[in-house]
Design a protein that fits this description.
The protein is α+β, with helices and mostly antiparallel strands. The protein is built from 3 helices and 3 strands.
């Protein structure tokens, strides 16, 4: 299955913006990451556990990115919780303990 143009453009755009959001990464916080720490690019994802768009991305788009970019060592993916409601905050707290 070929990678879609929208997915490719998203990754390219994300690569251009990573330095702008990299300041939010706290070196003392235990990061949840996928991929090689030596990958030339790092993508930072802020997600909510109750967001349907985040769920769709995780089920439909992320596996393709994982297969083409992360597993090949070209991209490291860092996950951060961004709870959008009380339920998501509770779920994030439970997931981190």
């Amino acid at each position: 299955m070929p990678i879609s143009r929208r997915t490719l453009l998203s990754v390219v755009a994300l690569g251009a913006t990573v330095p702008a959001v990299a300041w939010a990464v706290d070196a003392h916080q235990t990061d949840r990451t996928v991929g090689s720490p030596k990958a030339p690019r790092t993508a930072v994802e802020f997600f909510s556990l109750t967001c349907p768009h985040c769920a769709h991305f995780g089920l439909e788009t992320f596996p393709e990115l994982d297969a083409k970019w992360i597993q090949s060592g070209k991209l490291r993916w860092v996950f951060y919780d961004f709870p959008t409601d009380k339920l998501a905050l509770t779920a994030a707290m439970v997931a981190r303990t």
